Amino acid sequence: MADLQATARAHTNIALIKYWGKKDKNLILPMNGSISLTLDKFYTDTTVEYSPSLKKDHFFLNGQNKNDQKLAKFMDIVRQKTGFNSYASINSINHVPTAAGLASSASAYAALSLAATTAANKHYTKTELSRLARRGSGSATRSIFGGFVEWIEGQDDESSYAKPLRVNTDWDIRMIAIVVDSKPKKVSSRSGMQTVVATSPFYKGWVSTANKDLNDIKEALSKNDFQSFGQIAENNSLKMHALNLSATPHFNYFEPESLIAMRVVENLREKKVNCYYTMDAGPNVKVICKNNDLNVILDELCHYFPSDHLLVAAPGPGVKLLDN
Q1: Residue 233: its pLDDT value, please?
Q2: What is the pLDDT of residues 270-319, one digit of tens each?
Q3: Pick from 308, 313, 283, 242: which is nearest to 101 by CA?
Q4: Helices vs. strands in the chain: H and E counts, helices first
Q5: 38 near 317, Cβ under 8 Å?
Q6: Cα gap 261→254, rounded to integer Å
Q7: Tens of pLDDT along 232-266?
Q8: In terms of C-beta density within 10 A (0-12 exposed, 13-18 middle, 19 or more buried), how is residue 39 classed?
Q9: DSSP string, 185-217
Q10: Domains of the chain: which residue ranges?
Q11: 3-state class of 167 per DSSP?
Q12: Going by C-beta distance under 8 Å and a sequence separation of 6 or more, which residues neighbour residue 217?
């Protein structure tokens, strides 16, 4: 049997309505639906090459050999679903800081899903790829698609997947990622959300309000109401981080610079600049704005952060195959 190979690229996404907690840890089914924006700036390229001579999967991240049990388990799922039983050499290049709250796992597993199935000579629809990517990382289910994406909560493996949001918006939207700290975070997303679900007295309230936020932000998108859209995204983010402070043991992802960035955005709003912030499981703050406000926001942020720590992204595309 000849070696089979494919290379895919997937972009990160940033959740605007957060997923924070699983109702099924094995299938990675979320407690609530979520909405994200796929970004053009950050992406992962992954090559999968199957070979009958391999006795196990080999994984290289940015050129370094990794012993990744999570990835090995995911490849077992790929083999189970495709019926293609060879092991593979997997080479990933992350064009995004790994494990720093910039959704590197989302782009990683979305790219791996397409590369692994294509190399196995299986051609999945994007909905099928979304279901598969979810098994590696919940947020990866959204990186299969570009632009604004909704992850449908679902009740089982079949019904939990992402879909593109078809909205009539003419926003020239941008997201500024303020890289406060690119080192791996001390509390992983997986560990953090498990602690929150198990111990936060406010978790039931989170699920009900997150579902309301999801419906409200979809309405704001459909009405081209950028102010409501930004306010809902910012408030949803703050509620997620409040859960972490209410957990036992409590934890948080904030660094002092995170709070400075949030204050800068709030001060800009007081000056009638339409911008909002969001944070995922990491200290880096993302500023949501329109392109025509970009320069004034960057000028203000440059008083507090090095310019090379301010990364501007626009809406990005969905997963795609690359020429080997």
Answers
A1: 98
A2: 999 999 999 998 899 999 999 999 999 999 999 999 999 999 999 999 99
A3: 283
A4: 9, 14
A5: yes
A6: 11
A7: 999 999 999 999 999 999 999 999 999 999 999 99
A8: buried
A9: PSS-HHHHHHHHHHH-TTHHHHHHHHHHHHHHH
A10: 1-324
A11: coil
A12: 16, 17, 35, 228, 229, 232, 233, 236
- In terms of Cβ atoms closer than 10 Å to its own Cβ (0-12, 13-18, 19+), residue 208 is exposed
State the Cα–Cα distance between residues 35 and 18, nearest whole angstrom: 7
- How many residues can be counted in the chain? 324
CATH topology for the 1-324 domain: Ribosomal Protein S5; domain 2 (3.30.230)
CB 280 within 8 Å of CB 309: no
Residue 193's nearest CA partner among 132, 136, 240 is 240
**Alpha helices in 223-304, H assignment, sequence order:** 226-246, 256-270, 294-301
Q: Please state, in angstroms and as integers, the Cα–Cα distance from residue 215 to each residue in 15, 20, 33, following that order.
A: 14, 17, 10
The 10 Å Cβ neighbour count of residue 290 is 16
pLDDT, average across residues 85-103: 82
63 phi and psi, to 5 degrees?
85, -5
Give the phi and the psi of residue 98 in degrees, each rounded to 5.
-80, 135
- Is residue 54 within 8 A of residue 88, CB to CB? The reply is yes
47/288 Cα distance (integer angstroms): 32
Token pair 């959204």 is found at 142
Neighbours of 272 (CB within 10 A): 7
C-alpha distances (whole Å) from 122 to each of 45, 109, 130, 186 are 19, 17, 15, 38
Helices (H), the chain: 69-82, 104-119, 126-134, 140-143, 189-199, 203-222, 226-246, 256-270, 294-301
* Whether the bond into 317 is cis, omega within 30 of 0: no
Q: In terms of C-beta density within 10 A (0-12 exposed, 13-18 middle, 19 or more buried), how is residue 182 classed?
A: middle
